[in-house]
Amino acid sequence: MNKARKKQTSSATERHKDLEAMKAFGKKIRILRIMKDYTIEQFANEIGLHASQLSRIERGETNVTISTITFLAKAFDVKPADLLQRD
């Protein structure tokens, strides 16, 4: 396999891992929100995010910033690392 092909395969693998991590993070956010008995709209209003943004996070469609992770962790009263840890 030539260098360009190897690099392309490696990039695709990394993108796949990133998508998996985003989906796992979103699933955890959704579970925590449901455990608090909130709809997306209710929770988004409470924490000051737009409901569509929260929905994209929960579906794993957006790459969140460190500040958003910290913000969500505070809202759930957990450590940011707890949100990032995969089960």
Decide which structural class fits the backbone: mainly alpha
Largest sheet: none
> How many helical elements?
5
Please give the domain count: 1
CATH architecture: Orthogonal Bundle
Q: Low-confidence runs (pLDDT<50, min 5 residues)?
A: none
Order of helices and strands: HHHHH
Keywords for this entry:
87 residues, 434 Repressor (Amino-terminal Domain), mainly alpha
How would you describe the overall organization of this protein?
- The structure is a single chain.
- This protein is mainly α and 87 residues long.
- It has a single domain (3-84), classed as lambda repressor-like DNA-binding domains (434 Repressor (Amino-terminal Domain), Orthogonal Bundle), CATH 1.10.260.40.
- 75% of the residues lie in helices and 0% in strands.
- The protein is built from five helices and no strands.
- The protein has helices spanning 3-35, 40-47, 51-58, 66-76, 80-84.
- The longest helix has 33 residues, at 3-35.
- The chain starts with a helix and ends with a helix.
